[in-house]
Amino acid sequence: MKLSKRTRYGLHALIDLVIHAKTEQIALNSIAQRNGISEQYLEQVFSALRRARIVKSVKGAQGGYFLEKDPSDITVSEIVEVLEGNYFLEDETGGTEEGRRVIQELIVERVNKSLILEGITLQDLAEQFMEYRNYPQDMYYI
What we know:
Helix content: 40-55%
Strand order of the largest sheet: 1-2
Number of strands: 2
Largest sheet: 2 strands, antiparallel
Low-confidence stretches: none
Number of helices: 6
Mean pLDDT: 84
Strand content: 5-15%
Radius of gyration: 19 Å
């Protein structure tokens, strides 16, 4: 499975929102600038996220976006489904009955059961991001 640019940008923007929207909504243009993403493209992504009730918008001069739920209650699976659609492998339909059953049981069902996106939350992503941001990777010890 390959995540689309839409989903990757959506995840980047949502991590940014978790980190920066602690007390107030964040303008989309500031999210776009911090992450090097087109504001117009993010508008499309956030429109889908708003319809799915992942983010909420506030209009006006001091407007912006904030998460509608706690980040620990938003799974990566939920985000991917909103931005990509169903990400599971489809059931096997071609070939002989025996061939379909083998492929279905040994590949499709095993892959779909092993996808762990439901166990990863937006909070997990934000915490990992902050860990990487705060870890000085260029520091050498002798």
